[in-house]
Amino acid sequence: MKRKQLVIGLFGFGNVGQGLCDVLRRVNPDNVRIARACVRNTKKHRDAPVPITDKADDIFNDPEINLIVELIDDADAAYVIVERALRQGIPVVSGNKKMLAYHIMDLIELQRLTGTALLYDASACGSIPVIRNLEEYYDNDLLISVKGILNGSSNFILSKIFNEGMDYSEALSIAQRLGFAESNPTLDVDGWDSLFKLVIITIHAFGVYVRPEEIFTFGIGRMTADDIRFANEKRRRIKLVGCAEKLGDDKLALTVMPQLISKQKYIYSVEDEFNGIVIKGMFYYKQFMFGRGAGGHPTGSSVLSDITAQTYDYRYEYKKLNSGHTPTYTTDFIFRIYYRYTTEGERHLLTFENINESYKSATYNYIVGDICLSELIRNADTLRRAEVFVAAYPAD
User: At a CB cut-off of 8 Å and minimum separation 6, what does 172 contact?
Assistant: First the structure.
């Protein structure tokens, strides 16, 4: 069978776009080439190895181009590009997780109406092909949970803290210098990047779409030396974890927050800029996927995998979404947390169902107790503004 020839119109030539170009140069496939890249500022990319333009029409009006690859960091602009491509009948590969998290249901419907494919495995976990695996190998109702480290930048920072004794600011500075974290690291360290990935993963794992603002999200930006010491004393490590977990047969809970992870957990030993996903099923128990989650080359290689899939017209079937047996999202779920606070006002931000352990001193106070997820969601904005730290504290 003759292989399909792909001529790419690329939007964005940042870290991932350049990584994709370098991966293509090294692999040198004879059926894939980039015809042109569209960027905001052509002066910044005069030495690019592909033709450059700042006009989207130069790509959309090129009859030779039969695949759009969207790798820009502006979610609104990315949506305009992807929607236009699908309406024109041009397949798309996208890496924009925020855009997908907010618009994925519209884009699923647009794919159905136009018969045109949108692939985005690169948006979820860097080099880990989690979307394709959920689509093809976990396309039944046996799945119980999908959880893990979804952001390589925050994990790099936490690895430096727990392995090398660095403080948070020093670890963040190194991550920024190496290109694992942006100059404004909020998207990574406050959990938003992990949140967008979790929304996308949940569509394919359980057939459920939950808007990002409905999911409790808390990051590591407020973590202090006291929290690190608490974790070490309990022989645990703090990891930023995205979690989608079925409760019984018909309910689903979602969270993105730090967790105090014990040594027997797979993700305890996931270090540096790596991601780790644990998929738990009813009969096959746990399966673990591991790979680089940050950097131009790992993500670029995942983009190339989506591109290669287009050579045989692969598309997602959204089997879970269309199964008719999907669970219902719930926030009525009680679990144990560690809550560190300073003032009495902060102490009373949360109402606990049960307190297992507490400590008070002049400078450091904490509670370990059971709390309802709805209570955390109700106070999420206030917690993110306060000088407090919240982490899930599983029993094992």
Answer: 157, 181, 185, 189
What CA–CA distances, in Å, run from 136 to 200, 208, 222, 297, 306?
16, 17, 39, 25, 14
Taking the C-alpha atoms of residue 190 and residue 22, their distance in angstroms, rounded to an integer, is 31
Report, at the CATH architecture level, how domain 132-292+326-392 is classified: 2-Layer Sandwich (3.30)
Enzyme catalytic residues: 197
Question: What was the pLDDT predicted at 2?
Answer: 61
Res 111 pLDDT > 90: yes
Task: Please name which of 313, 312, 315, 311 lies closest in space to residue 5, comparing C-alpha atoms.
Answer: 311
Between 269 and 325, the higher pLDDT residue? 269
R_g (Cα) of the chain, nearest Å = 22
Span 237-246, pLDDT tens digits: 999 999 999 9
DSSP 146-172: EEEE--HHHHHHHHHHHHH---HHHHH
Domain residue limits, the chain: 6-120, 132-292+326-392
- What is the enclosing helix (H) or strand (E) of 307? helix 296-310
Class of CATH domain 6-120: alpha beta
